[in-house]
Design brief:
Elements lengths: L2 H13 L5 H13 L5 H15 L3 H8 L2 H7 L1 H16 L8 H11 L1
Length: 110
């Protein structure tokens, strides 16, 4: 990825409603360090956080189909997420495809 592609991906992750605060902080730290001698360390931190935060598809299926998933998302959204996760797993997906997770995967794969 070019530096511009990385920047666009980082900004997209930050804007995603599904992005957790830890990932937003890692994204902001990279943006703040861009072009400085701290950029490489910030990228390492960003990649570590991306690997921690990306949701494996089996975890999404399990959570969205659980009582905790229903409590978190509401019954209708939990069912939609569950059905969608099963569908994309059947198509070969290994991870959630929400904007935050898709961006994390893009960063991880470089």
């Amino acid at each position: 990825m070019t530096k511009e592609e990385i920047k666009e991906t980082v900004q997209a992750i930050m804007k995603a409603p599904s992005c957790c605060s830890e990932m937003k902080d890692a994204c902001q730290a990279w943006l703040d360090a861009e072009g400085t001698d701290k950029e490489a360390a910030a990228m390492n931190f960003l990649l570590k956080e991306a690997k921690l935060d990306i949701t494996p598809i089996d975890s999404l299926i399990a959570f969205s189909g659980s009582p905790a998933g229903v409590e978190t998302f509401g019954q209708e959204l939990a069912k939609h997420l569950h059905d969608h996760a099963i569908e994309i797993k059947g198509q070969g997906a290994q991870y959630c495809d929400c904007p935050a997770c898709a961006g994390c995967l893009k960063l991880i794969n470089g």
